[in-house]
Amino acid sequence: MISNYLKTLCLIFIIYIGGSLPASAILTQNPASKTLTLAEIDQKIQTIKDRQNLSDELKKRILSSYAESQDYLSEAQAQEAQAEAYKQSLLNLPIEATHLAKQITDAENNLKNHKPEKLNIFPTDELEQRLIIEKTSLSDLDSEINRIETLIGDLLNRPQLIRAKISEIKTKQAQSQHEQQTLVVHSIDNIAEKESRQIWLDSRGRLFISSLKALELENISDPIRLEVEKNRIHLLNLQREQLSLLISDLDNFLLDRRQQEIGKEQAELLQAEKAAAGKHPLIQEATRENMAYSRSLQDITKSMEQFQAQKNELEQRYKQLEKDFQSAEQKINLAGLSPALGNLLREQRRNLPQAKQYSKLDDSIQSQIAKASLEGFKLEEVRKNLADIGTVLTKRLAQQLPADISDIEKLRIRTELRMLLNDQKELVGRLASVYSEYSQALGDVDFSLQQMLSVADKYRAYLDERLLWVPSAPVIDKYFFKDVLTSLLWFLQVENWEQLFSNFGMGLATHIWLVAVGFGLVFAYWQLKSIAKARIKNLRPRRIGGSQYHYHYNFNQTLLGLAHILILAIALPLILAWLAVVLALSGSGDAYTHDFSRGLLAAALSLSIVQFFYLLFKPEGVAEALFEWQSRNISLLYKQFKWTRFVLVPSIFIIAMTGSDVFSEHSYALGRAAMIISMLVMTYTFHRLAHPRYGLSNSFQKNAQGWNKALPYICYIIAVGIPLAIIGFAVEGYYQSALEIQQKLIISLRLIFFTALLHEVAQHWLAVTKRQLALRNARQKRRQTEQAAVTPLESGFMIAEPLLDLSKINQQSHKLLSTIIIAILLLGFWMIWNGILPAFSILDRIELWQHSVILDGKETLERVTLTNLLISLVYTGISFILVSNFPALVDLLSVGKFVMAPGSRYALIHLMRYLMLSIAFLAIANELGGSWSQVQWLVAALSVGLGFGLQEIFANMVSGIILLFERPIRVGDTVTIGSVTGRVSRIQMRATHIVDWDRKELVVPNKLFITDQLINWTLSDTVTRIVVSIGIAYGEDIGKVEHILRDAITATPLVLAEPHANVVFIGFGDSALQFDIHVFVHELSDRLEVGHVLRKNIYEALLANHIEIPFPQRDIHIRSYPPGVTPVAPETPPSVQATAGG
Question: Residue limits of the Mechanosensitive ion channel transmembrane helices 2/3 domain (predicted)?
Answer without folding.
Answer: 913-951
